[in-house]
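stage 2 :: seqdesign
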């Protein structure tokens, strides 16, 4: 009986403390970390805005909460939430098993993942690619070699045919060699027009050998042009996917899931405090790729680095964003109810579409 009384007293004393976290009149401290387009400051008004800020305002209005924002870096924000110095952590904050052991999370409100930003690959038209290939030094050298081969074949045929087939290969040396060059060219491409044909045994042997050699030569040139067009259109970026990160110069953001993921994969990365600095290094040619949250990379590139960088299709690791609270927070359940309703609304979908476009999806599932 005494034990029951002690337990009951503990419950009675503990309940007011839990309720006090969201009690009317208390000003909640909302730890935020700038991460456009989820948390960012309006340059004109100085007010905080973004997708996560919009979500929190909706929640706070429905629950009639008073709050103030406390801007921090990611590491300090996590420490503040874990220690209870902040009541809520609101940013593009990824839910991880490690963080879950130190704090509580809301239901996810956005699902995306880590993406890879690379320098933009120049896009050229098919005609532009063809012209670039035709006037490249390797192609011009190949054409010169082909011309020399046609000339040698033409001279050999002329030598055999100039006397016994004078009506077709006769005349001056210049004229006869010119006719031989013509014959070798049309034989290679069309197996002859029929206007010129060798009659001597030596000329016919040359013709037979050249017909088969011509097939091989045409096939080789076709393959070379196709390969040149493919390389020109793709611009062969150094990083085409996650497998290429092991041998590339890669940037990541300090204390984030991108840094931890690369460490686990054995990728040596240059660490930057903010994604903007990493993207600037990418634009300056100091990096081959930047790994970070795909929606944030895409937004920053659209805003500041359009035409300089791009995000590869696909995600290398699924991630979910959620609000964070100190463990045992009384805010969790009421916030979750409003969050679930709001994230499925057309208002939220429109907000995501406005900031990120259709290609990122945006609403959690």
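stage 2 :: out
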């Amino acid at each position: 009986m005494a034990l029951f009384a002690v337990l009951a007293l503990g419950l009675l004393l503990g309940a007011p403390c839990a309720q006090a976290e969201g009690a009317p009149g208390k000003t909640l401290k909302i730890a935020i970390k700038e991460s456009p387009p989820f948390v960012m400051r309006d340059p004109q008004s100085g007010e905080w805005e973004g997708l996560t800020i919009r979500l929190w305002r909706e929640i706070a209005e429905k629950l009639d909460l008073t709050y103030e924002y406390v801007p921090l870096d990611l590491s300090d924000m996590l420490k503040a939430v874990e220690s209870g110095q902040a009541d809520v952590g609101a940013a593009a904050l990824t839910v991880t098993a490690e963080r879950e052991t130190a704090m509580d999370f809301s239901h996810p409100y956005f699902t995306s993942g880590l993406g890879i930003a690379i320098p933009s690959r120049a896009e050229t038209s098919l005609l532009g690619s063809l012209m670039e290939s035709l006037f490249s030094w390797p192609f011009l050298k190949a054409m010169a070699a082909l011309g020399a081969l046609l000339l040698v074949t033409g001279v050999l045929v002329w030598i055999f045919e100039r006397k016994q087939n004078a009506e077709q290969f006769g005349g001056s040396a210049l004229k006869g060699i010119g006719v031989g060059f013509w014959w070798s060219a049309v034989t290679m491409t069309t197996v002859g027009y029929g206007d010129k044909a060798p009659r001597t045994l030596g000329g016919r042997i040359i013709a037979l050998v050249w017909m088969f050699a011509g097939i091989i030569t045409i096939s080789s040139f076709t393959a070379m042009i196709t390969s040149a067009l493919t390389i020109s259109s793709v611009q062969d970026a150094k990083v085409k996917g996650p497998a290429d990160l092991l041998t590339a110069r890669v940037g990541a953001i300090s204390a984030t899931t991108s840094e931890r993921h690369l460490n686990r994969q054995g990728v040596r990365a240059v660490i930057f405090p903010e994604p903007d600095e990493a993207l600037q290094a990418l634009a300056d040619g100091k990096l081959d790729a930047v790994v970070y949250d795909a929606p944030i990379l895409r937004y920053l590139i659209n805003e500041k680095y359009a035409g300089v960088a791009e995000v590869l299709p696909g995600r290398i690791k699924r991630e979910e964003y959620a609000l964070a609270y100190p463990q045992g927070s009384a805010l969790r359940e009421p916030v979750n109810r409003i969050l679930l309703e709001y994230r499925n609304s057309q208002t939220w979908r429109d907000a995501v579409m406005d900031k990120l476009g259709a290609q990122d999806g945006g609403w959690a599932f």
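stage 3 :: structure notes
- DSSP finds 14 helices and 13 strands in the chain.
- Residues 142-225 form a domain with the Helix Hairpins fold (CATH 1.10.287.70).
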